[in-house]
Specification:
heterodimer; A: 415 residues; alpha/beta; 6-stranded mixed β-sheet; globular; disordered N terminus; B: 275 residues; TIM Barrel; 9-stranded parallel β-sheet; 12 helices; 9 strands; 49% helix; 13% strand
């Protein structure tokens, strides 16, 4: 108890001894995070936290998780030197952490495997989830199928149109995909609707949140499951280069792939860290999804964090070409790390992402998802400014197959 | 400290030996003028306590009716600041009927909690229900509100067990709002037996008046609740009345129609224990 109180005090008063100690016992990262939910959900959230803390202490849970990571997800994912891209950019060595090679094609499965193991430990029979691009929905439907649990996915009507292949995938996996027609009909509304379902079906239902967002303990729990990305990358770069990288780059929507890569490096001051937000049509147009760049702290979806909002505190509808980044908030730990100066925030527009997508396809023979294409756009700006013996690791967190329709549309091509 | 308007109203109800009717409408729905007319006529129509929703773009605990009401109000230009102006106007004519604001934290967070509390008290607001502020987050709004004499009303739900209930009741004042179903507003109707047991359980833990809501639509249901609890809350059914007039493209008769609905609910609630 004494140590927990000390950690809290440090988080409230300034630079902490460790950037990896959060959240405090009430789920706060500095002023961010917390549990801003309706009373109906509080007992469930407390039960989830209890189950999570117990699982973390249980070596058999970790062993089971490791086994699923290895044999079902296909971990560890490779750390790949993108040599032609490196040569093209003429600066730092660019490594891709290839989480797009995971089962289901993105990092989302790491968290879903972890949460479904928790759900079965808690005896829940029914799984719900929200999804934007559909990657988290597919990953959830996948693990629900494998564990034989009923699965309902909430997805904005607009995203259903943009991501038809993923919708079909989820249905093939036996999930029920429920179109959400409220609000902007995208990810935030899908999350509202999933929360409404959970409020209604609290007893038998487990809500698999897909990002490091939502009420405590989700931001910490999802981070812990996704940290396998950074833990592996750290060992892999040590093995290949004998040292830590100079720079980490990842795209942030809710922020789970980024937190997964960043977290194991947070206490290495020599490693610079850049999170890339979606600038949509450009920050100046207001049509973007860059909560940390252009938003301010607020409360939504159970957490306090940077939010896109108007002068009356109404949530502004975000815009990004990438459905996975099209979210008006950001995980609370990112907000805290930004305020502490531990991570830097960059942005990439829709067009920047499309250009990076094309470059990666041409030089590396990899179609990245549009989400990591935003990160790659930042890599193309950073690498030339660094020396050739410096090292960048970028999280290539998803593959681009799901996005070819969107890309074709922007190129004026009819498939 | 003198008793709040809510304390006085529930004391009157106890003296009259009847339950109260709590009516919920979305602030600014469907437009500013029509809303003012609706609000001003509620006490005369029989509302014992008035709840006004603070419009929010993402009302996560509300069903389709109240979501739509929130969006209509926002589309018509309602803001938290303007809403307080409407309440101040209501208070020029009515100094007796307690008025409670209900909504979500972000608009208040943006307004600034301290500034908001001052403005709300100046406008004549008596209490706050902030759906997404559980006792775990009391420091920010609940405690300052209490310090200024504003009631902070909490929701208790079927999932709030005996272990948690004292925490929920701890800083609650005015009344406790029992959510009769696990679900969103306007969903399934509550079951009388379960509500009776729940109210009895709450009364073992608190002397606060118990209002029961979520899913009460018809006078007969309201009467059923009035036999068990200190007040029945009706919301979605009233907001649906607004939606119906908006859909028909003519809101000129809306305030009268809504007040007629409140009148029939009030009659049922007032007569419930005599019947």
């Amino acid at each position: 108890m004494a140590t927990a109180i000390t950690a809290t005090t440090r988080m409230a008063t300034g630079r902490p001894n460790s950037f990896r100690a959060g959240p405090d016992e009430d789920g706060h990262f500095g002023i961010y995070g917390g549990r801003f939910v309706a009373e109906t959900l509080m007992p469930n959230i407390l039960a989830l936290e209890e189950a999570w803390l117990a699982a973390k202490q249980d070596p058999s849970f970790q062993a089971e998780l490791d086994s699923w990571f290895k044999d079902y997800v296909g971990r560890p994912s490779p750390l790949y030197l993108a040599q032609r891209l490196t040569d093209h950019l003429g600066g730092a060595k660019v490594y891709f952490k290839r989480d797009e090679l995971n089962h289901t094609g993105a990092h989302k499965i790491n968290n879903c495997v972890g949460q479904i193991l928790l759900a079965t430990r808690m005896g829940k029979k029914r799984i719900i989830a929200e999804t934007g691009a559909g990657q988290h929905g597919v990953a959830t439907a996948t693990v629900a199928a494998r564990f034989g649990l009923e699965c309902i996915i909430y997805m904005g009507e607009r995203d259903i149109e943009r991501q038809a292949p993923n919708v079909f995938r989820m249905r093939l996996l036996g999930a029920k995909v429920v179109p959400v027609t409220s609000g902007s009909k995208t990810l935030k509304d899908a999350m509202n609707e999933a929360l409404r379902d959970w409020v209604t079906n609290v007893d038998d239902t487990f809500y698999i949140i897909g990002s490091v967002a939502g009420p405590h303990p989700y931001p910490a729990l999802v981070r812990d499951f996704q940290s396998i990305i950074g833990t592996e990358a750290r060992a892999q770069i040590q093995e290949k280069e004998g040292r830590l990288p100079d720079l980490l780059v990842a795209a942030v929507g809710g922020g789970s792939n980024a937190m997964g890569l960043f977290h194991p490096f947070l206490d290495d001051p020599e490693v610079r860290i850049v999170a890339v937000e979606a600038a949509g049509d450009g920050i100046e147009t207001g049509r973007h999804a860059a909560a940390m760049t252009a938003g301010e702290p607020g409360v939504l979806h159970g957490m306090r964090s940077y939010l896109m909002q108007d002068d009356d505190g109404q949530i502004v509808e975000p815009h990004s070409i990438s459905a996975g980044l099209d979210y008006p908030g950001i995980g609370p730990e990112h907000s805290w790390l930004k305020d502490m100066g531990r991570i830097e925030i960059a942005t990439a527009t829709d067009q920047d992402a499309l250009d990076a997508f094309a470059l990666c396809a041409k030089l590396e023979g990899i179609l990245p998802a549009l989400e990591p294409s935003h990160a790659l756009a930042e890599v193309t700006r950073q690498a030339p400014q660094l020396a050739k013996d410096q090292i960048i690791i970028m999280n290539l967190c998803g593959r681009g197959d799901k996005d070819i329709g969107t890309v074709a549309q922007h190129m004026g091509v009819t498939l | 400290m003198t008793a709040s308007r809510l304390d006085r109203r529930f004391a009157e109800l106890r003296d009259e030996g009847r339950a109260g009717l709590v009516t919920f409408v979305c602030g600014g729905d469907p437009d500013a003028d029509t809303f003012q007319a609706i609000l001003d006529g509620l006490p005369e129509a029989g509302a014992d306590v008035i709840e006004v929703g603070m419009p929010f773009s993402d009302p996560m605990a509300d069903g389709p009716s109240i979501q739509a009401g929130n969006l209509r109000a926002l589309a018509a230009g309602m803001t938290l600041k303007r809403l307080l102006g409407h309440i101040a106007r209501f208070r020029e004519m009515n100094s007796e009927t307690p008025l409670v604001l209900m909504g979500y934290f972000n608009p208040i967070h943006k307004f600034g909690p301290e500034r908001f509390l001052e403005a709300a008290i100046a406008a004549g607001v008596d209490g706050l229900i902030v759906v997404d502020l559980p006792p775990e987050e009391d420091a920010e709004l609940c405690l300052p509100a209490m310090a200024r004499g504003l009631n902070f009303i909490r929701l208790a739900t079927p999932t709030t067990d005996d272990k948690r209930l004292p925490k929920v009741l701890g800083n609650t004042s005015g009344f406790i709002y029992y959510v009769s179903i696990t679900g969103i507003t306007g969903a399934a109707a509550p079951v009388a037996d379960m509500v009776g047991a729940a109210v009895a359980r709450l009364r073992r833990h608190t002397d606060l008046p118990v209002a029961v809501g979520f899913g009460i639509r018809e006078p007969a249901q309201a009467a059923g609740i009035a036999r068990l609890a200190d007040a029945a809350v009706v919301g979605s059914a009233l907001v649906d009345e607004v939606a119906r007039h908006v859909a028909e493209g003519d809101t000129s008769g809306l305030p009268e129609a809504l007040h007629a609905k409140v009148r029939s609910l009030a009659q049922a609630v007032r007569g419930a224990r005599a019947a």
